Amino acid sequence: MQINEIKEIIKGVAKLAKTVVYSGNITDEVAKRNISEAKDIMREFVGDNFGDDNLELLEECFDKVPTYVDYSPSKVKYACAYFQPLLNQIYIMDDYLKEKTGTIYMIHTIIHEYAHAIVSESSMNFVIEESFANLFAEMCINHYIQKGKVIKSIPSKKLRKLRDYGYYNYDLSYMDEGVFARTMMFLSRVEGSEMDMMEEYFFGSRDKFIEQNVELYGNELKDIWENKLNKIERIADGKASNREKYLPEATNELGYMLSNILTLNELRQYDREKKSGLYNIENDILDSIYSTKIDKKIERDLCDIAGVRHYNDIIEVLGRLNENNLKTLINYWGNEINYKNSSFGYTKFMKSFVDGLYKMNRGNLSNFDRFLPFIGTIPIEVFEKIVNDRGINNLRDITNLALKYGVIHNQKNKDYATNSLKLLILIKRKIGAYSDIAEQIIQGENFQNRRKSMVNLSEEMLEALSYFHISNDYLEKIFKIYGNFKKDVIDEHILESIDVLNEIPFFDSPDFVKNGLIRIKKDIQSCINVKGVKDLNMLREVDKLYSSTRIPVDKKKVTHDVELAIINLAANGYTITNSAEIMQNIQEGNFKDIKIKPKLNVENLNAFVGNYDRTNILFNMALEDFLRSKDLVNSEESLMTCKKILTPEMKFKLNISDRMEKRLCWSINNRAQNSICRNSSLLIMVNGIAEDSLNRMEIDEKYIRKSEKKEKIDLIKSAAEASRYTVSNSKIIQSEDLLKRGMRTKLKEQYGLDYKLEE
After folding, report:
1. Average pLDDT, stretch 97-113?
2. What pLDDT is recorded for position 74?
3. Vertex 220, ends 218 and 223: CA angle to 5°?
4. Residue pair 119/113 in contact by the 8 Å Cβ criterion
């Protein structure tokens, strides 16, 4: 035995001792059915494509490799399942098993881990190993479905969708690794050797597999494997510690090789197979090669038509073309350029081409528009020139142009997030709501990597907003949630946008307007989902908007936080009497009907003070219910509560937002004239405080708007408010206390609370 082999065994034993904490047999019948069906799916694929001999090898693998549950809390954060080669066993994490049993994801995961088990003795580098396991799972599932087989553990609706659209691993791991493998394997599909290679990898010789690929690509591919991929090291969580050092460069080198091998017609075939080819979906490398090939062909065509060998200035070449030349060009390419620009984004060449077309027709926009069937959309830079050249300053006209030229037309467009942000900046400048926050984001180092996590404009929402004559002040409130990363969107801005949406007529509007407004609601929901729920009232306000679609939030976390708030409020004198009703509504996702009883008064208001970090999820809802109550200004108790809420001290301690303070003050002012206490000195005092507060806030808003730093100030303010709370109340109940046995009885006896808590 070689020294290196001994070292690997020692490493493996150490890893085993470290990772396997506790395991058990899978007892759940549904989970067993998933495993059984996954094996059937593999049998079908291997038997049909690789023959009976390999099918026997697969059966031997099934017999030798059992599947267990891993209950290890240390691994649950980074693993859903894994193959343990030293024990020759597959482990599925307990939480993942509970969450994904009966889904296509569980089927995929089981096949993925068995793929590792099949090739364990001849496994290759990290990239190939993980991405080929995913490919094998996808191939098996699609083969099974395409044969008309039924996966019994998958709901019929989900199964129909899989049959219609095929199965692709959008949501699972190793996406970057997968791009390399899919790109590499595409050439074998073109050459007709795809299944031979897959068979060789899983059931044949590692050396022969490498040899087959070298025959296709040359020694350059072997060099990439040896000097890039083989240097990527797997770490404990199943990922790679140095992936970013080697994988991007390896992928780019592979792309360069393919660009010299594949023809434009082969790439056209690649694009036609987008919905059916596993190597074609979400493949940025092949997309880029295809797009560049088209650029080079157009460039050659332009030079040929213009009668020049090469050019330095696109305007010079376009100036040589007559009407017939352009018609010839357009007739040859058909919709391909249109499709390319919409699907893959604008390359440097295509930007200069469209910019040249506009410069030649700057004085006659209708003449420029003749090229739209050919180019489809236009770059955002050209769009900005059109808007500025024509002095357009209102949302409706900007939106109409944006829709006409499709500057944010396709959300899969590589330029989509960038174009959305640039369009947002342009709109804000034109309506007088400009802030340089968006420009700072677009210039940030991490923008390209994080752009998918942004709240982007859409054609639907722009079309809906431009339908109405909405004031710039209202538009500004809506646009505040856009152009930010979802986790950074301020709660106050979400609530302000909801206030505006509540003022816009929905039910009497055309369908396209309804769709646009619902899209804004979905954008708000996506922010809440990413940020997490810190304010139950916000969920209620969103849930009241338009449709009855359920908000995708972590109900378990919301339930826990609300229970914790109720318990801590009870410990400090505010016993909520309808807690069971609140919990039921949360479980049903029925947030719009949640109310807190009894309403706020001076005493129970104090229950939030000094305890705010554990009760704040309920405070805004309690305050909202209070300001909407019939006796807001009709009882001395309510007026005393209003007075206390409006003190600077209370606003500071309870983080009462400007929006909520303004709403409370408006409610007091508007209802004071009809109050049964309208002549009381207390009402006169409270009404005066409310008027002073409104005047102060109006002055502050004018100052902020004048300084054009509103968003910056809000961000700074938000950060300060998040860090200033201190907990001084000795009766605060810690979350871990909820897990202690006997707590339920104590809560019932001491605080009168009677509902189940998780133990």
Report:
1. 90
2. 64
3. 130
4. no
Q: How confident is the model at residue 730 (pLDDT cuts 50, 70, 90)?
A: very low
Amino acid 275: pLDDT:
59
- Give the residue from 209, 196, 208 showing the smallest Cα distance to 50: 196
Q: Whole-model pTM?
A: 0.74
Q: Which two tokens stand for residue 500?
A: 């505006």
Half-sphere exposure (Cβ direction) of 60: Cα atoms closer than 13 Å: 9
CA dist 722 to 185, 347, 624, 727, Å? 51, 43, 21, 13
Residues 181 and 307 in one domain: no
Residue 266 pLDDT greater than 80, yes or no: yes
Query: Above 90 in pLDDT, residue 688?
Result: yes
What is the pLDDT of the chain when averaged over all its residues?
A: 83
> The CATH number of the domain where 78 resides is what?
3.40.390
- In a domain, residue 60? The reply is yes
Q: How far apart are CA 518 and CA 207, in angstroms?
A: 56
Alpha-carbon distance of 51 to 196, in angstroms, equals 11
Task: Please check whether residue 558 lies inside any domain of the structure.
Answer: no
The residue among 417, 267, 256 whose CA lies nearest residue 340 is 267
Could you give the strand order of the β-sheet that contains 67-70, starting from the edge strand earlier in sequence?
23-25, 67-70, 89-93, 81-84
Partners of 68 in beta bridges: 25, 91
CA distance 299 to 314: 9
| Cross-strand pairs, 83 | 90
Residue 346 lies in a domain: yes
Nearest to 375 by CA among 349, 342, 411: 342
